[in-house]
Batch of 3 targets.
Target 1
Amino acid sequence: MEEYRHLFPDLEEGLQRELQEKGRILAVKAGQILLQSGQNIRNTMIVLDGLIKLYRENDEGNEFFMYHLHPGDGCALSLICDRSFKVSSVTAKAVTDSVVLVVPLEQTENWMRQYRTWYHFVVGTYRRRYEELLETIDHIAFQNMDERLEFYLRRHRAALHTNVLEITNTQIAQELNSSREVISRLMKKLAEDGKVRLLKSGIEILKL
Amino acid sequence: MEEYRHLFPDLEEGLQRELQEKGRILAVKAGQILLQSGQNIRNTMIVLDGLIKLYRENDEGNEFFMYHLHPGDGCALSLICDRSFKVSSVTAKAVTDSVVLVVPLEQTENWMRQYRTWYHFVVGTYRRRYEELLETIDHIAFQNMDERLEFYLRRHRAALHTNVLEITNTQIAQELNSSREVISRLMKKLAEDGKVRLLKSGIEILKL
DNA sequence: CGTCCTGCGTGACAAATATCACAGGATAGC
DNA sequence: GCTATCCTGTGATATTTGTCACGCAGGACG
């Protein structure tokens, strides 16, 4: 935990110690699921290293990408769970190998009243996630697939800090709730426009 | 304020008094805008009477309905604003004549640490709005217009406690970010299926 | 009464997206 | 090398939704 302190510069000293004492550090492999839709929430999760993606699933197995969690980010849902409502409605999956800090909900509820900086952390987290969800809604509601695809690529470039995304059209189609063929065609157009280059195992983003 | 106490049965005595002392009661007419997209947030708003709708707007003037606030509901966005981020990204408009309690943000931040029940109120509010947003996303992402229209009608019936919605197809089209003609056709089909009856100034919901 | 406005209904058409069918290329395992 | 598997590209076609053009009905108001 000591090595992750820099992620939480705003948390006060006592809280830093408590995080260390009460939290359990969990390493997860890429692809592993941290929180399953429908599962009960008993712990708050904070990402320490790696990248986690959150997505919504429906009954027919369709899924829909919501947003990423980066080191220092807390999982909004699990941050403010209270006793009355504890079922998760989203799925969290590790994109890369990741490290997560897990804290029992009983702790965090105390912290909320005890530490002003924890309150700010939670509030800030929720606010950002909420805004990000709104942005997502904007895109589904107002934009066409081509624009949404570009946004998807930009977002993933930013999240992974790389211009080369090792990702298949099939995966993209799933996360945008579209179909592989559509993504394939749009991607071809992006390539023609010189915005991306199609590599044999991935996509290089040139200018977006 | 005294007359609205029953809306907050869970808030502790001292907090009830503070709400009364520090809050300002505001009456708004149907159609009036309470919170404009892009506007700064300085106050927390809690609905005491009437019905408020929240919607998202984009640059081209398209809008998109998000959810309703009923008496007893707080505006999630304004509840957890902190100093760092104060611009609203949604618009709030009174659907019917309404009454709203307005409390300066400085107050509510104190309450958060002072009153456990306030903390629960905020957490519960945020949680519900978040879930509602997710539900909305589900509908745009996974469903066709006909299903979304039915959902829209059910939601509004529940919010207004009536089977007769006095609303034009044009309005519905706007809130679903569709077009009048599409809604017109779908509505006709709903009528043929016996699910609604088209009145001369509105829609009667029969079985949905 | 005319005329202006707003909302509705509808046919024809266009655009976006989904689906189906099929073929080829790469690769891992035997 | 053979085969199974996964990903891709692409044409043909269906479905859904949006857009355009038009006419009609009713209410407000001079």
Target 2
Amino acid sequence: MTQGVGDLDRSIGYALKQAATALRTAMETALRPLGLTVSQYSCLEVLGQRPGVSASELARGVFVTRQSMHALLLGLEERGLLERAAAAPHGRALPTQLTAAGRATLAEASGIVAGVERRMTVAFDSAALERLRADLAACVNALSDHAEP
Amino acid sequence: MTQGVGDLDRSIGYALKQAATALRTAMETALRPLGLTVSQYSCLEVLGQRPGVSASELARGVFVTRQSMHALLLGLEERGLLERAAAAPHGRALPTQLTAAGRATLAEASGIVAGVERRMTVAFDSAALERLRADLAACVNALSDHAEP
DNA sequence: TTCAGCATGTCAGGAGACTGACATGTTGGA
DNA sequence: TCCAACATGTCAGTCTCCTGACATGCTGAA
């Protein structure tokens, strides 16, 4: 029989889940005054860095399904934070862009989130920070490599 | 105005979310043959390591609310994987324990999850692994320290 | 040219988790 | 002693996200 996970305090997976949960909770708290959920902020952030992407591309960047992104976009569009092309210039993909109000909201939200990230990593020097980022990326790669269809 | 998050590929928060998502997806896939969700497995794992805890304590260990844990426990109890005391020996807390079937299922699931974790960290030596675990724990501590009510 | 395969947008239904609320049992201070 | 504060269990409602399904538009191979 294979060995189990072992003591939770020594499990990498548990530590990862714990850190992600703590970050998400802190972001939710920090973004609440702006009336933004974490998913909505993520949507704006990706959109700000990649203007004109389709909803499906956006969904992959935010780690949700395109169906969920659809609902998310409807809400943000109604609030006037983004606008979607009425017709598809090519294929079925409808390019999406931030409005001026969307860019302003994003700037504020991004500053808040940057503050949360800084608070989380205040004890890290730049080398340690880059090392942690690289380690996390290595985990993602290792899991996606062996992913079976 | 404060600086924003910056390029997503350089954001620690984004990398953390990505890693946690990848791990969760891999665990879901690996546990599906056993008919267990990640939350159900987490519940069994914590229960295996801390027999007799209350549902509320269990909820904190699994990072869900006690209301969600309540529903989770009902399902696992019906499947005969755990049993709850009918009356509270002290206060209102009802001690919960794994049954023999629960321990068997946990052993199998824990082996599977350990395999996923190993796959994720196959490129890490034991020092790098411990360093990553410590870094993640430091992130959690930094966020919980400044947590306001 | 034709069509099978694929990506996208959208609608409908369901599962899981959360917030709100209330009852119950314990604990520590006035 | 008495009660306010707290923790726990539980019920109800809601929200978010997911899976399933279908229509539409491009693409590459036969």
Target 3
Amino acid sequence: MSHPNRERADRILDAAGELLLRMGYRKVAVDDIARAVGIGKGTVYLHWRNKELLFQALMMRESADLTDEILGRIEADPATILPHRMISASYLVTHRRPLVMAMLRGNADMFGSLGDLALRKQQDELRTQFEETMLRHGLIRSDVPNLTYALNASTLGFYLGDTLSGEFEGIPLEEKAEVLAYMIRTSFEPSGEPDPRAVADVAAELGSALEELVSVYRKGIYAHDPTRAPG
Amino acid sequence: MSHPNRERADRILDAAGELLLRMGYRKVAVDDIARAVGIGKGTVYLHWRNKELLFQALMMRESADLTDEILGRIEADPATILPHRMISASYLVTHRRPLVMAMLRGNADMFGSLGDLALRKQQDELRTQFEETMLRHGLIRSDVPNLTYALNASTLGFYLGDTLSGEFEGIPLEEKAEVLAYMIRTSFEPSGEPDPRAVADVAAELGSALEELVSVYRKGIYAHDPTRAPG
DNA sequence: GGTTGACCAGAAGTGCGATTCCGGTCAACA
DNA sequence: TGTTGACCGGAATCGCACTTCTGGTCAACC
């Protein structure tokens, strides 16, 4: 038991994700997943203590991949960390991942999967650090009232708009991302060209924070906890 | 039947609103409403052909009052029509009306009440006219990409944020409205002082459009249609 | 030691008859 | 003529027994 096959774990997660998209959390039986992979049901339990942890792992892997994607963009072009580019890139990357979108939408299904996870704290800290770093380097205006709320509320509608109403379904994702970028740039960034030095510094600082986040994610994916809760 | 008492109609709507807030659409029986007013159930049907129309009337009255409130502000100070003030004023006024908020939230309950109403078209036209007029008078920047979507998506989060998550519950409504105003002003309005002449013109133009809307609302409230649908 | 799948308990779903509820009508009444 | 409330039918809800499903375990097997 000491070292369950990591490659097999990934195959399990692949199958779980596929089934999740097709049938929703409720309808996916652990047995289905095992059969799809061609292993016994018990084997799944060698990897994760229960069904919920399995799906948590799936979401963590998805989040890790997503974050990696953003990291890649930052490496390719440090200016990606500019708020309007960072936020619109996140929007695009998120919307192109069906599992993540399903998670964002699926309030009813699979709640708790990431809801009460300790990762929330991690993500909050990242957000706070993002804002603080940007402010410190002058890449976000200092006169924005209630920055945290402002960013949240202004951005939220872009994520939720598609879900309800479907009024703007026809607009291509890229165009929506550009609208979001426009709004962030005009409302939250100073006018004029950003200082390249500041950009490089922030890219380094945020890059390592993101790498840290990815490693926390990845650690969580395969961490099956053999201890049993008392009681 | 020809002229059911208008004052009585208002008392019925008062009771309906109160009960609606307390128990939700489903649980409110027409009998409850009648009893609360102290009249017979049949009398209610002298005013509206069925329950749904009654609640539609309630929502129209609420919308009319709300619009009137905004009109009052415009009259008191024409500069209220500036996008950032108009939108934040609407936000405030809306959030202070429990019935309207209940309507916005209550997807499950009372759907169709205003959903498939022809008023949508009316409101869409108003929105379009708002944008078009603002652009024409130079009170909205002409370089905003996809203006309609931009305004919608940027604003939506402020209305929905409170509903889900409750993360920012502690922030006073006025402060949130100011954040919204800041975002609209910086993203959608030109820099520099607005031309007072343009403000006055737009105030007049939009004022009459809003008055028109109010009169459509008011007409709808008491308009019981004696004709019966065929079939 | 690693893996399996038959097995179990309890949770979730189903079917359906009995019951309650309530929107809408209309004969009777003031 | 305006108003009422008893009444009706259909729809929603409830109760409950019966069935199916499925997360998790563990003895047996490789």
